[in-house]
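User: Just a sanity check before I run the rest of the batch. Below are the structure tokens for the first item. I only need the designed sequence back.
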């Protein structure tokens, strides 16, 4: 399509290639450039996705300077997210960033500031939000199907060996994975975090160098308690990737156990019924790209934008701070200390969507 939007994909590793498949299947997009600091990964992706050598770059800055594009997909390890996203946003290039927005809260705030200052779209890939079972749970809570929520529990137990950069992350469970669980919980409950008390640790048999387990007590706004446990070096019974998630309310409860089907309990009944799921067309990562595309055209709100996602990053950051100090962390105070006003401002791009070029 000669009026297709042009994407620069930065990072062509596991997730970068998964995004390249999604882009290839979406006729609204074409590849403007591929970027990777590792020539082998860059060339392998270039060959696999038919991107000629002159459109392959070893640095994001070089690609941003030389290539005309409509957006940038940031799929590098988290350490590089801040620098690449700010470089793109400050040039007015809309950014679709893999989670986490940045490695720490102040860096995440710096990215958000760059988006605000340039009035440029910033959306984060918290991909669980694009799944039917998670949207079904959000809708059930929103529509009062379980009455007033009283507590949430989430238990994640999966042993997984990645190799690579995750092996040396000091807080790998909280910062690389629990950001998904915390974001999902915020999304379903429709609330932000108030207080966090956490203990992260590394069992003796852990193959990660950093803390691969965490026990976290969150309090969401309206004093809604959340009890979370996550282990990436699980022994014994395993959970699914979203964890075993229960939302209990005054009129019943919701249960997610297999990343697919949701069960609803009514009153004190012990026998659940399946909760009907919405038909999301498309679902998953293709839905993420579809939302980003429509947000770019000013037709839809991004899900989630940086303004929303900073509250999930604040939860992981507060959990790490709590675990290090042994103290309960107030989330608003934590955000303010990192330089952010917890008030959610109307993002500037909404009234000034980027122009969509053609040809
Ligand atoms: N949303 C999800 O469900 C999900 C799942 C997996 C990974 N992720 C996220 O995707 C991102 C990438 O993870 P991955 O598993 O693909 O990692 P990966 O290690 O497989 O790939 C990362 C690639 O980025 C390249 N890279 C590193 N620094 C760079 C830089 N400065 N400029 C350009 N390229 C650079 C590396 O050479 C590598 O090829 C991470 O942020 C991760 O958290 C998200």
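Assistant: Here's the designed sequence for the first item:
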């Amino acid at each position: 399509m000669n009026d297709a939007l042009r994407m620069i994909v930065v990072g062509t590793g596991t997730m970068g290639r998964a995004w390249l498949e999604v882009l290839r299947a979406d006729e609204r997009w074409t590849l403007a450039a591929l970027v990777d600091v590792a020539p082998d990964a860059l060339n392998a992706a270039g060959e696999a996705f038919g991107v000629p050598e002159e459109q392959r770059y070893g640095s994001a800055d070089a690609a941003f300077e030389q290539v005309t594009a409509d957006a940038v997909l940031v799929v590098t390890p988290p350490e590089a997210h801040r620098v690449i996203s700010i470089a793109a946003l400050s040039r007015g290039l809309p950014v679709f960033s893999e989670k986490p927005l940045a490695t720490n809260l102040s860096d995440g705030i710096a990215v958000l500031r760059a988006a605000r200052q340039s009035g440029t779209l910033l959306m984060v890939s918290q991909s669980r939000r694009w799944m039917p079972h998670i949207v079904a749970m959000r809708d059930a809570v929103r529509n009062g199907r379980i009455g007033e929520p009283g507590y949430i529990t989430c238990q994640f137990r999966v042993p997984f060996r990645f190799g690579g950069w995750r092996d040396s992350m000091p807080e790998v469970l909280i910062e690389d994975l629990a950001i998904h669980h915390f974001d999902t919980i915020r999304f379903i409950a429709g609330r932000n975090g108030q207080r966090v008390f956490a203990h992260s640790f590394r069992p003796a048999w852990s193959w990660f160098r950093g803390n691969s387990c965490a026990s976290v007590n969150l309090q969401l706004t309206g004093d809604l308690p959340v009890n979370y446990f996550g282990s990436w070096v699980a022994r014994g019974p395993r959970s699914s990737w979203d964890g075993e998630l229960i939302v209990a309310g005054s009129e019943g409860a919701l249960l997610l156990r297999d990343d697919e089907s949701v069960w609803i309990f009514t009153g004190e009944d012990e026998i659940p019924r399946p909760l009907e799921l919405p038909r999301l067309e498309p679902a998953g990562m293709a839905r993420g790209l579809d939302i980003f595309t429509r947000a770019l055209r000013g037709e839809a709100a991004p899900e989630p934008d940086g303004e929303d996602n900073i509250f999930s990053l604040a939860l992981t950051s507060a959990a790490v701070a709590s675990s290090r100090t042994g103290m309960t962390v107030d989330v608003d105070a934590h955000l303010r200390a990192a330089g952010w006003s917890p008030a959610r401002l109307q993002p500037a791009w909404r009234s000034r969507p980027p122009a969509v070029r053609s040809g």
